[in-house]
């Protein structure tokens, strides 16, 4: 195994310079970009692996414990954080050696997180909900500790993902086999690639089946209860014939169910509803009527993220490119039924 002395010798710099660079303090200590590049070139050439456990990453001196940071975007997805934490808790319970720290960040501004750049407050990081700007930052930045990505793909970091397009295709298949050829789609903002991929999976499946979903049947809204309620009302007011509503999130679907109830439209007899199940499963199960959805296994994904992070810490390695892709099962409940006057 290579040593930090060998890195310094190959890069032609001092031990202290190598330490400053790999510990994320180059900018603060005014180390030039050219010097940093030489250090990282040497690290890669020698396949140098910093001894993570030996760093003083915590204020306490307890070397038996490890700290893992969860970076979670502070936007509409904060309501989903409880599901992720529940999954991590299943891994942590009974293991007093793991300390979890939740760090919030603004979408698109992950690069502003000093603790991420410094890397001295934790042994590994799980990064969730990274935007395209955040992913660009991660792909271009040398971090000196293991990073695991939740629901994103990268050749540089280990990832725990699902097949986003497949989620949309599953929803389409369940609708089509029940005769729903004309549907409306209530989708959220297109700022996030994975949301667009789910919609594309649905749209492509309908296109291939010969029933394209035209633009006037696609309504953009916020991923919220109020957003879903408003979008559903807009769809009804348009008077476009449809027998089902696809919703890009559970929150949108629950809002839509409220509007359908207020308008005295029976579900699923007169209108079916299906969603991407990214919310609390109990909310969907206990809605009136219970909500059918394509389930995002967030708790299991959280467990797998934690497993990868802990493995990287225990082995003192930063693994690249490993991807775990989990299935997204369909959950049939009361909100999805046969299309009225189904054609033979």
UniProtKB/TrEMBL annotation:
Ubl conjugation recorded as keyword: no
**Which InterPro entries does this entry report, sorted A to Z?**
HTH_LacI (IPR000843), LacI/GalR-like_sensor (IPR046335), Lambda_DNA-bd_dom_sf (IPR010982), Peripla_BP_I (IPR028082)
The name on file for this protein is LacI family DNA-binding transcriptional regulator
Return the CDD domains for the record. HTH_LacI (cd01392)
What species was this sequence derived from?
Candidatus Faecivivens stercoripullorum
A Pfam family the protein falls into: Peripla_BP_3
User: Which SUPFAM superfamilies does the annotation name?
Assistant: lambda repressor-like DNA-binding domains, Periplasmic binding protein-like I
What is a GO molecular function of this protein?
transcription cis-regulatory region binding
PANTHER family, per database record: HTH-TYPE TRANSCRIPTIONAL REGULATOR ASCG, LACI-RELATED TRANSCRIPTIONAL REPRESSOR
Q: Which UniProt keywords apply?
A: DNA-binding, Transcription, Transcription regulation
Cite the HTH lacI-type domain residue spans from the record. Answer: 2-59
């Amino acid at each position: 195994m290579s040593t930090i002395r060998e890195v310094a010798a190959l890069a032609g710099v001092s031990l202290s310079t190598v330490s400053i660079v790999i510990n994320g303090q180059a900018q603060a200590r005014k180390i030039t970009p050219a010097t940093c590049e030489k250090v990282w070139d040497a690290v890669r050439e020698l396949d140098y692996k910093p001894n993570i456990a030996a760093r003083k990453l915590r204020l306490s001196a307890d070397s038996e414990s490890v700290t893992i940071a969860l970076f979670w975007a502070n936007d509409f997805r904060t309501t989903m954080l409880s599901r992720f934490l529940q999954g991590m808790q299943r891994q942590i319970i009974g293991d007093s050696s793991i300390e979890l720290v939740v760090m919030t960040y603004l979408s698109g501004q992950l690069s502003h997180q000093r603790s991420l750049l410094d890397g001295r407050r934790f042994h590994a990081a799980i990064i969730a909900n990274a935007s395209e700007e955040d992913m660009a930052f991660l792909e271009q930045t040398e971090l000196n500790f293991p990073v695991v990505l939740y629901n994103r793909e990268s050749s540089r970091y280990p990832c725990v993902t699902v097949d986003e397009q497949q989620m949309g295709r599953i929803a389409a298949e369940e609708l089509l086999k029940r005769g729903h050829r004309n549907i409306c789609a209530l989708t959220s903002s297109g700022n996030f690639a994975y949301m667009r991929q789910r919609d594309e999976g649905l749209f492509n499946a309908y296109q291939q089946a010969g029933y394209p979903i035209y633009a006037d049947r696609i309504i953009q809204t916020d991923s919220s209860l109020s957003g879903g309620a408003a979008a559903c009302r807009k769809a009804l007011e348009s008077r476009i014939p449809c027998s089902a509503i696809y919703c890009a999130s559970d929150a949108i679907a629950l809002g839509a169910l409220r509007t359908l109830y207020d308008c005295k439209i029976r579900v699923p007899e007169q209108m079916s509803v299906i969603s991407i199940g990214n919310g609390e499963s109990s909310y969907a199960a206990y809605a009136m009527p219970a909500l059918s959805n394509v389930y995002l296994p967030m708790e299991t994904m959280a467990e797998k993220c934690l497993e990868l992070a802990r493995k990287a810490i225990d082995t003192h390695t930063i693994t690249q490119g490993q991807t775990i892709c989990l299935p997204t099962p369909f959950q049939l409940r009361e909100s999805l039924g046969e299309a009225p006057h189904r054609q033979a």
